[in-house]
Amino acid sequence: MEDYISMGNNFLSLIKTRRSVRAYKSEPVPSEALDAVLEAGTYAPTGGGHQSPTIIAITDPKYRQEIAKLNAEVMGSNADPYYGAPAVVLVLADGSASTFVEDGSCVLENMMLAAHALGLGTVWVHREREIFDSEKGKALLREWKLPETLRGVGAIALGYPAQETGQPAARKQNYIVRI
Fold this sequence. Notes:
- This protein is an alpha+beta fold.
- The protein has helices at 2-17, 31-42, 61-75, 100-117, 128-133, 135-143, and strands spanning 53-58, 87-94, 121-125, 150-159.
- The chain has a four-stranded antiparallel β-sheet.
- The longest helix has 18 residues, at 100-117.
- It is globular and about 50 Å long.
């Protein structure tokens, strides 16, 4: 039982210490670490166990730049929405699944926690829905030989943090209500 308590405490500590990272080193993510993060995403719960999400890992500079440009266009900006991270992991899901947003969200959270456990930083980035609902996004899906029925859920910027992360904000009053 002691091992389970220790493991549980380690996991809770991992959750409590993960922070969003908004500045990354240019150093690439080692393939073994990237594989582990991606695999963690595949073990996320999904509605009915249907595994509606598709995980797309982008490390190729051409596609990394293209996806950043498309995301920035949605924002009306020219800034890098992925904060210079060397890898971007997109999570899309079958839009016909009634739980596609929830499924993809669980995948993203699993990958963020796995990355933190490996000493990598992440931040959840939005606007993938707008990207992949657009004609430019559909063209990318065709280029990648993926179904155009995929809808964007979100993405994570992934890499080594360029600076220390701060302390968490205090938890709000009445966050938990017991009835």
